[in-house]
Amino acid sequence: MANLDPAADPSMDTEYLPELTTSPRYVRFGPFAVDRQRQQVYREGGKLRLQGKVYQVLLVLIQKQGEVVTREELKQALWPADTHVNYDANVNTTVNKLRQALGESTDKPAYIETIPRKGYSFIGAAEYSDKPFPQGAFVPPEEADPSAALPPPAAAEPPRDSAKWLTLVVIGLIVVGILLGASVATLWIARFGFQLR
Questions:
Q1: Which residue(s) pair with 33 in the sheet?
Q2: pLDDT in tens, 108-127
Q3: Calpha distance 9→11 (Å, rounded)
Q4: Which DSSP string corresponds to 110-138?
Q5: What is the mean pLDDT of residues 51-76?
Q6: Which CATH architecture has domain 17-141?
Q7: Which of 62, 130, 173, 186 is 20 to 30 Å from 95 at the Cα level?
Q8: What are the boundaries of each domain within the chain?
Q9: What is the maximal distance between C-alpha atoms in the chain?
Q10: What phi-psi label fits residue 151: left (phi over 0), alpha (psi between -120 and 50 degrees) or beta?
Q11: Which region, left, alpha or beta, applies to residue 46 given φ > 0 means left and ψ of -120 to 50 means alpha?
């Protein structure tokens, strides 16, 4: 994952670093939570794989939620001035990967809205905290209280519908087998003239 320490990740523009490193450790929006110290993103407790530039784009957009982040700002935040890449294509690809990881589309954005010919805006409602969010909302697995009682696992319901279908399929195969066997026997008798005596 991307590292926000400028010594470890020189590709992240230091203009964005003070805001990102001094704000609260935990960020929550929708079913997602970010632990910025660990540089990990969770969805309902499960870890997402957001790496490199995709993770950095998420942080920049969240930090400026509700504002338009221009493509030029993203370019400056993600690539050093001496980097030679196709910035437009890379920004598009990176934002699309982020959208895919968050499970949204450009048609019905829940978190990242495209502002035509300008850039992108984080339209979700991000909450910040210095402490982990309550258990139901988000607690990184490493920080969960092991003494907390876990709810009992739900009893598995027997798959009644699938058992009925399986029974019907087996009966159907038996009937087809009997009919095929009778047909083959009738044809064989008719062809070879076999008669019982």
A1: 28, 42
A2: 888 999 999 899 999 988 88
A3: 5
A4: SSEEEETTTEEEE-S--EEESSPPPTTT-
A5: 90
A6: Orthogonal Bundle (1.10)
A7: 130
A8: 17-141, 159-197
A9: 102
A10: beta
A11: beta
